[in-house]
Amino acid sequence: MPGPSEKILIADEDPDVLDLLARQTLGPLGYQPSMASDGPATIHQIHVVHPDIVIASLTLPGLTAKEVLIVLRAQGLDPLVIVTAPEGQEKLAIQAFRLGAKDYLSKPLREAEVVSAVERALTEVRLRKEREALTRRLSEMNQELERRVKELSLLYGIGKAVISLNHLDRLYDRLLEGARYATDTEVAWLLQLDDSGKQLMLRSQYGLPQVLAAKVNQPWDDGVSPLVIASGEGLRLMGKSLQQFKIAQVCQSVMVAPIKAKNECLGVISVGHKEAREFLQRDQAMLDAVADYASIAMINARLFRALESRTAARKTDPAQTDA
Q1: 186 shares its domain with 298
Q2: Are the beta carbons of 182 and 290 closer than 8 angstroms?
Q3: Is residue 156 assigned to a domain?
Q4: What's the pLDDT score for residue 4?
Q5: What is the DSSP letter of 13?
Q6: What's the whole-model pTM score?
Q7: Which residue has the higher pLDDT, 103 or 93?
Q8: Alpha-carbon distances of 47 from 41, 50, 53, 132, rounded to whole Å
Q9: pLDDT score at 96
Q10: Calpha distance 126→142 (Å, rounded)
């Protein structure tokens, strides 16, 4: 059965033909017919209606159906065209076929022949739409696969950085770079609790205003992070819900992930958009993964400091033994 997207444009200089095809034949069958009575109107209707099929007279005034086919080809438009002409105009029909017409009907038109020609053409239209839908779906699947490969490569690269980089500042910068790439954001910052566990220190940033960027390795409260530290849960804010927090002066939407080691929160990693753009659950999952790597880096740094302290203690007191 024809659906609402199957549109047919009837272009003919004869009002009786327009009435026969649009009102008496195709309309009652459920198609969506539109009409034009000359060549320029036909071109205009094709741009407005985007018909699946055009039934066009080879003797249209202004522009003939043959000239309409030339215009369609030049403009990259591809509705299926069925041409009509009085008997004895077969040579014109052959020329129209060479220009891309799909079928030919001789006048006077008979309803059964018109319906049969339309159904043949719509079979091709539907197959074309199915191919286009499959092509779009394949393209979407390839893009999704490419995105996932990039995400896996990103996480692999961050994992290697955690293992190979000993300088925490450089490592935090690498983590923020990965967080921004994974979430397609323009602003990012990483806060870490100090040794007392009471103050959040800005350890790394990207895209913050200069007055805030100057606070690296100093205490900074963005208004949102203490809530995440207290709850241990990630947070996404945008619009009015963000306006009550300081960071709203910098970002229109914010996503925060806690950096946790078991049940202990060590800090947060945050990203933001300067415009109001909603974060997806997938974005939160990627930020959480980067936060897990940040946790590993912080725990490794803590263990390394403990090892250095014990080594220094041994040097000052050779008699000290491991507990």
Answers
A1: yes
A2: yes
A3: no
A4: 45
A5: S
A6: 0.54
A7: 103
A8: 10, 6, 13, 20
A9: 83
A10: 24
